[in-house]
Structure formats: structure tokens, C-alpha cells
Amino acid sequence: MVPEARPPRMGEYPDGTVLTSTRGDAAIDRATHAARRLIDALLRADRDGTDLSGVAERLESVVDDLDAQAPAVQDRLVDMWSGEGITRHDPVTGPENAIAPPLTLSGRADGSVDGEVTMTIPYQGPPTCVHGGVSALLLDHTLGVANSWAGRDGMTAQLTLQYHRPTPLFRALTVSARQERTEGRKIWTVGEIRDDEGQLCVSAEGLFIDKKVPRPR
Amino acid sequence: MVPEARPPRMGEYPDGTVLTSTRGDAAIDRATHAARRLIDALLRADRDGTDLSGVAERLESVVDDLDAQAPAVQDRLVDMWSGEGITRHDPVTGPENAIAPPLTLSGRADGSVDGEVTMTIPYQGPPTCVHGGVSALLLDHTLGVANSWAGRDGMTAQLTLQYHRPTPLFRALTVSARQERTEGRKIWTVGEIRDDEGQLCVSAEGLFIDKKVPRPR
């Protein structure tokens, strides 16, 4: 699917504009959603009573069928990065990436972006808590989307995370970010994760540099 | 599977001791490995010529079968955290977690830990590069394992990442870490990711606090 011509920017688009790709009825979206459920189901599965060998075989068979018709990786990368705008494959928001929880982010009129997400066992670090590195992943990505919404984005140069309290699994978390200022090619952006009672779990400060990695062609 | 009684520590175990769970022949390991291949295959798949609706149905059927016999989440969490030592379910090294690349880490006699890993399309941020947040995830976890190897670990309180150059996909990366010092309950640990030419891609500094989240019972 070709992304939109340019990602939405604050001022040009209304409060509440969805800034990430959302899951649609396309077969790839449905298959990826099933794979996402599978990751979770394997971690929750009965280790003894279930025919896990049979499951392994059924999954290998699906992968073999997919691989038999897959294009060369380089061609797929070119296709993945064609067009401009919102990608569908990233590991945080991508409806075509089973690793993504996925997080959906909306742009606000005040320049911030935010979204709600409930994390489950695949994202666990300490018992019943989100892995600190997964919180870093959510925040790095959300800071990047805030930059895009502000109209100026780039590559992460430095990211500092403060962990204020454990971030719970199984509860709706709010992830938010906002670009603070720019100076030449430097961009400073902040963000945070709060639990469903509004308590601050993790905060982040990022320095980004306005440059891009070339796209595959 | 019940983890070992206590994670290995430097001084008590030899140089090269593997500190993470490795994939075995157990059916759950094989099924999870197939799911890991599936995540990648879905991102590489031909979007048009493949019967992705059929794939979605086959995957839904597997998930339904797993869910039909799955224990209650709370019981599964208790089981997952029983015993002491190396877990098998975390999102970085866990052979039972399809999100994990997985990374295997070894302890060194000098107190450091390291491992090699090649990242693929599911972990992509910028074109053909590892997502900055994924690098943060790898490093946060590796710093934690370095703390365990040093005999003193805890929860991440602060993590600072410096991104020196883009981290490439499809090339063997070396992830390493070492505990620097402790003071009371505070633990300082550093780590880095280098590419297959030894170039520094990402470095990390973490402050950890020696405390634990209670285990589910």
C-alpha cells in the first residue's frame, strides 16, 4: 500500500488526526493480527497438554508457503519505502508488523501527540510489568511521530529515559510526546508513559538530528 | 521449565558462560521459532500473489487451538516466574518469546557480557537500519544481564542512549555491557552496540536500583 503523499502536520490538520497506520480489512493486516495473537498465545499456552509439536508444524507450513512466493528482500525493501508518509511496517505502530502492540497515535492542536495502548505478556520485563527497553521503544517512536506532527523530524541522536515507577501490563497506558524546540538541525522532544490512573511511569527526553538515511532503490 | 537455582556469576563460572536461555528441541521452542520466522515472512511476503486470507485463517485456527487449552493468565504468570534464575520468556533473549531476535549473551572473565545478533526487517526503523528504540531494548536488557553476571542487579532507573551512526540490519552486531560501580542500592552500568566492522553504533549508560517487583503467586 502506498503511503500518503506527506505525513499530516499540526496547523494543517485538525486536533485528533490519526498519525499512524491503522489496521484495515486487507488480508495482510488480518494475517499480521493473527500472528500478533499467536505470539501472545504461545507465551500463555499450556506447556504440557497442548500439541505444540503439531503447532510448530502448522506454522512451519505457513512460513514455507509465504517464503515460496516472497520477492527478493531488496525488492521488498524498495516497495516498503516507496511513496512518502506513514509507514505500515514499523515495530511500534505498524499494522503489518506482528511485533508492534500496535500503538495508534493522534495529533493534538497544541502540538502534542498521544495514544492509548495495553501491553501484554510478550512485552514483559519485571513480573507483570512492561520491560524497560520496551518502554524506551514506545517512547523513541512516539517522540519521532511528535516531530513529524510538528513538521520537523530526523534521526535519534540521544535519548534519556527516567523510570519513575513500574509500568503495568494489562492496563491502558497513555503514551504522549511533544516537540519542545529546534535549533539549526537539532530537535529536542519530550514524552512520557502514564498508567490508567494518570501516574507517571516513564519520561523521555530526546535529541534528534534533521537528517535521513537514504531509501532503498 | 524451571530455571536454574541462581543465575551464574563472574568468578564462580568460567569465561564464556552462556547467561541467557538457549533454544532447545522442546516443542514450545520449535513453535516459537516458527512464529519468529512467521513475523519476518509476513513483512517480506508478496502482497498480491499470495493467499494471505488463507494464511490469516490458518493462523487464527492455530491460535484458537492454543487458547482452548490455555491456563488462566494469572496461573501462567505464576508458573512463568517460578524458580530462580534465567527466564525463557523475555522479549530480548527468550526462546519462548517470538518477539525476541533472540540475543544470546555470554559472561566474560573480565566482568563484561556480550553476544552477537543479526537484526532483520521486523526490527527496522530508518530504511535498512535497526529502530533506535529496538537498540534501546537490546541495550537495556544487556545491561541488566551484565548486572546479574556481576552479582548485583535491579530495576532500570535511568537509561541514556547515544546514537553514533545508523545500526545496520542484516549484519552481525555485537552487543556488550559491563557493570561499572555500585554505591548503596545504586548500580551504574554501560554498554554498546557495534557493527561487523567494529564501528560503534549505539552506546548506553544505565542507573539501576537494587530492588525487585514481587513475583506473582
UniProtKB/TrEMBL annotation, chains A, B:
Swiss-Prot/TrEMBL catalytic activity: tetradecanoyl-CoA + H2O = tetradecanoate + CoA + H(+); dodecanoyl-CoA + H2O = dodecanoate + CoA + H(+); decanoyl-CoA + H2O = decanoate + CoA + H(+); hexadecanoyl-CoA + H2O = hexadecanoate + CoA + H(+)
Question: What is the species of this protein?
Answer: Tomitella fengzijianii
Domain Thioesterase intervals: 130-201
Give the EC class as a word. hydrolase
The entry's family comment says: Belongs to the THEM4/THEM5 thioesterase family.
GO MF, one term, reads: hydrolase activity
Q: Which InterPro entries match?
A: HotDog_dom_sf, RHA1_ro05818_N, THEM4/THEM5_acyl-CoA_thioest, Thioestr_dom
Name of the featured protein? Acyl-coenzyme A thioesterase THEM4
Listed Pfam families: 4HBT, RHA1_ro05818_N
Kindly list the GO CC terms recorded for this protein: cytoplasm; membrane
Membrane topology recorded in Swiss-Prot or TrEMBL: Peripheral membrane protein
Q: Which UniProt keywords apply?
A: Apoptosis, Cell membrane, Cell projection, Cytoplasm, Fatty acid metabolism, Hydrolase, Lipid metabolism, Membrane, Transit peptide
In short, the EC number is: 3.1.2.2
Indicate where this protein resides in the cell: Cell projection, Ruffle membrane; Cytoplasm; Membrane
RHA1-ro05818 N-terminal helical domain location is: 19-75
Coiled-coil ranges per UniProt:
none
Highest rank taxon of the organism: Bacteria
Q: Which GO terms describe its biological process?
A: fatty acid metabolic process
